[in-house]
Amino acid sequence: MRKPAGEARLSSIRPLEPIQVETPPVSDDWLHEIKYDGYRTQVILDGAGERAFSRNLHDWSQRYSPIIAAAEKLPAKAFILDGEMIAPEPDGRPNFHQMHSRMVWNAEQFAFVAFDILHLDGQDLRSLPLMERKAKLWT
Q1: Known active-site residue 35
Q2: Residue of 35, 73, 77, 136 marked active site
Q3: pTM
Q4: Assigned domain for 127 exists
């Protein structure tokens, strides 16, 4: 896909790293999320095409080509999705031990679990509260 004139290409954003604590906070001010057993990944779509980056910002678009192709069908012109690439079992549970072999032989058996949207159609969403971003992600 060719980039239209004047349209900036989106760059991957270094993800925030979790902080280990002795006990999780307990209050209505906190949101707890499942740790999927996979690889942290950002999927990016813009006028230049779709790409996927590892948490260390390595371009893994070729490794995740079926997921990348599916991203183009989402109802947006440009986005950065933050999530995790997993190798699900038939019952949906992620199988970390299958990640490497599927990267090499069966990339169509990956699933991308998006848990945040950082950019959408020209708007940087990182300053919005997480729950607002999650609402946009669902939409």
Answers
A1: yes
A2: 35
A3: 0.84
A4: yes
Amino acid (1-letter code) at residue 82: D
CA dihedral 93, 14, 135, 32 (to 10 degrees): 50
For position 114, which CATH number holds? 3.30.470.30
Checking 104-112 for CB contacts under 8 A at 24+ apart, the result is 107/63, 107/64, 107/65, 107/66, 107/67, 108/66, 110/64, 110/66, 110/67, 110/85, 110/86, 111/67, 111/85, 111/86, 111/87, 112/41, 112/43, 112/64, 112/67, 112/81, 112/83, 112/84, 112/85, 112/86
The per-residue pLDDT for range 93-138, each reduced to its tens digit, is: 898 888 877 777 777 888 999 999 999 999 999 999 999 999 999 9
Tokens of 63: 């490794």
Both tokens assigned to 68: 């990348």
User: What range defines the domain where residue 95 resides?
Assistant: 39-138
CA distances from 38 to 15, 46, 51, 75 (A): 15, 25, 18, 26
Number of domains in the chain: 1
H-helix segments, the chain: 65-71, 99-104, 130-138
